[in-house]
Design brief:
Layout: E1 7-15, H1 17-20, H2 28-39, E2 40-41, E3 43-51, H3 55-68, E4 73-77, H4 88-94, E5 98-99, H5 101-111, E6 125-128, E7 131-136, H6 140-148, E8 149-151, E9 157-160, H7 166-172, E10 179-180
Helix pairs in contact: 3-4, 5-6
């Protein structure tokens, strides 16, 4: 994966016992895919997964998306709370080469503007090989807020969203050059 690659490959993983059993409709995959299609300019190739809250299955799914599918970015949703079945961050960190704690810190900072229970979230991000994996919240509105950040009525940024840092992180780990729709989120790269 070099700068010559003309697309970004994104793994989307929704982690939910009930949605994976068909008890209710999964909202995670459509929310993540829809947001990416609006926010990222250029071609995107998606790998979509809907799996239960199972530690070993989460690990093997993430390993496959990194090592076999060579995804540049993997976004997960669900399983980041304190409940016994919430093991997404544990499985994610178990397969990591590097842990990127700033992503989780910023997601909690954004969510605390809406709910005091945001401190219970264990969202995180890691790097495995040349893949950035980010564990996002479970609700579509919270996903959008953490990716985009908080804006006032004039669309000025109050709290920076995490996706502003994602394209540069992908640059640093050897992935493709990712451009964003500045109306949704503006990618930050240091001036040369």
């Amino acid at each position: 994966m070099s700068k010559e690659k003309k697309f970004i490959k994104i793994g989307i993983v929704s982690i939910s016992d009930r949605a994976s059993k068909g008890i209710y409709e999964d909202l995670g995959v459509p929310a993540l895919k829809g947001w990416c299609e609006k926010a990222i300019l250029g071609e995107i190739v998606f790998q979509e997964k809907l799996i239960p809250d199972d530690f070993e299955l989460i690990k093997s799914t993430l390993i496959d998306l990194c090592d076999l599918e060579h995804c540049d970015l993997i976004l997960t949703t669900g399983g980041t709370g304190p409940a016994l079945r919430d093991v997404t961050p544990d499985a994610t960190e178990a397969i990591a080469d590097k842990i990127m704690p700033g992503f989780g810190e910023q997601m909690r900072q954004i969510s605390l503007h809406f709910v005091p229970t945001a401190i219970l979230s264990r969202q995180t991000a890691v790097i495995r090989n040349k893949s950035l994996i980010i564990n996002l919240p479970g609700q579509p509105k919270a996903i959008q807020q953490t990716l985009e950040g908080l804006k006032d009525l004039d669309k000025n940024i109050i709290v920076q969203g995490i996706f502003a840092a994602v394209p540069y992180c992908i640059d640093l780990i050897g992935g493709p050059f990712v451009e964003t729709n500045n109306d949704i989120v503006k990618a930050f790269r240091p001036k040369k």
